[in-house]
């Protein structure tokens, strides 16, 4: 099974304890990495690639979103691949960074009538797939990415977060 070297930074004290977040992230991302390696034949480097997770707040993620994406608003998750990667390509020693905003995760979880942990798990998988070159800018890309998310989440015992929706583009 592919291993990951997770580096975690908790910037907002309202997040659960770092040990809790680390356990959720390790379980989720290990399952996602295993799925990609076994089901999608995704190559992985021999040494565990490093991945940085930043658990932040809406104000911080809004600044990042404005600077890097030109969208002056908070969002749930942002991913920054360390190197450009096409789906199925060999990642480098550093996968990249994933930032997640607590208030947005809480709001969305409540709106979706899902637990905070289940929604956080989905967003971790979503952000992780972005680091491997998956995207949802075009309908066919969105369908492929959402299919992967759904299958990974099913392995974790979670339902399809996109059931009854058109692909997100």
UniProtKB/TrEMBL annotation:
Q: Which UniProt keywords apply?
A: Cytoplasm, Endonuclease, Hydrolase, Metal-binding, Nuclease, Ribosome biogenesis, rRNA processing, Zinc
Q: Name one GO molecular function term.
A: RNA endonuclease activity
Tell me which Pfam families the record gives: YbeY
Has keyword Nuclease? yes
Instruction: Respond yes or no to whether keyword Secreted is given for this record.
Output: no
Would you kindly state one Gene Ontology biological process term found in this protein's UniProt entry?
rRNA processing
Any one GO CC term of this protein is:
cytoplasm
- Indicate where this protein resides in the cell: Cytoplasm
**EC number in record:** 3.1.-.-
| Cofactor(s) for this UniProt protein | Zn(2+)
Under PROSITE patterns, the record lists: UPF0054 (PS01306)
Chief place where the protein resides: cytoplasm
What does the entry list as the binding residues for Zn(2+)?
126, 130, 136
Can you tell me which family this protein belongs to?
Belongs to the endoribonuclease YbeY family.
- What role does this protein play? Single strand-specific metallo-endoribonuclease involved in late-stage 70S ribosome quality control and in maturation of the 3' terminus of the 16S rRNA.
* The protein's name in its UniProt record: Endoribonuclease YbeY
